[in-house]
What we know:
alpha+beta; single chain; 6 helices; five-stranded antiparallel β-sheet
Amino acid sequence: MINFKYVRWKNFLSTGNQFIEIQLDKNPTTLIIGENGAGKSTILDALCFGLFGKPFRTISKNQLVNSVNNSSTSVEVEFTIGTRHYKVIRNIKPNKFEIYQKILEQQILKLNYRSFTQVVILGSSTFVPFMQLRSTHRREVVEEILDIQIFSTMNVLLKQKMKSIVEELREIEYQYDIISEKISLQENYID
Length: 191
C-alpha cells in the first residue's frame, strides 16, 4: 500500500521560487476542497508530474514551468510502501529525474498513470467514472490493481496459437479430402 508523506514544488505553474509543501500523511485519507483558483488542481498536477512525468490536467510539460522565473521547476514526492521509503525528485530546466520511470511504475508504485488517476487521485474536472471508460481501459485498470496483466498476455498468446492450430487443421482436412478422393478413384479403377 502506498502511503504518501508529502508533495512539494517550486516554480511550478503559477507558484514562485519558494517550495510549497502539502502534507499527505496527517490522516489516512486526504480530501482537498477549496474555491476556484485556490490550487487544488496544482496539487494533483504536481503529484502526477512527480510520479509519472506528466500533469493530471491535459497541459504540456513546457506550460508547467513558471513563466516568470522560466527555470528551476522542481517537484518532490515522498512516500512509503511497506517499510521502504522513497523520494522522487523531478525537475524541468534543467531536466532531472532520480528514479527510472519504468522501475517506478512497475516495481515500486505497481500502477501506471491511468490506474493512478482513476483509483488513487480523483479530480472532479477530468474524472471519468469507471463504467464510462472504454472496455480496454477498464480491463487495464482492473488488471493493474489486481496485478493480473499476465493473463491478458497469456490470452493473446493462446489466441495466436489457436489461430495457427485452426489453419493447420484446415490444411490437414484438405489433405485428407484429397487422399480420400484418390482412394475413391483407385477403388473405382480397380472395380
